[in-house]
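Supplementary notes for students who missed Thursday's class. We covered one full example, reproduced here. Read the sequence, then the structure, then the short commentary at the end.
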Amino acid sequence: MENKTSKPQSFRGVVVKTAMKDTATVAVSRYVKHPKYKKYQTRTKKYLVHDPGNTVAVGDNVTIVASRPISKLKRFVIAKTA
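Structure (token representation):
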């Protein structure tokens, strides 16, 4: 049998909060078409992201990557700051 390895889930977003220790809140926006009205709209979701050493600041564009569960709500880590 073959082992299939897939790339972990990744998103690009903007840091909106850095008040917690080793954690940042990243808002990820996506552009979707409404199924009934056919109008495009922006939908935003916030993720808690592991940031060891608090290296990012509010307003930074970052790439986040899925990882093992770090806490109850943290499932992503910061891959790079763009």
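Commentary. The mean pLDDT is 94. The two ends are 39 Å apart (CA to CA). If anything here is unclear, bring it to office hours.
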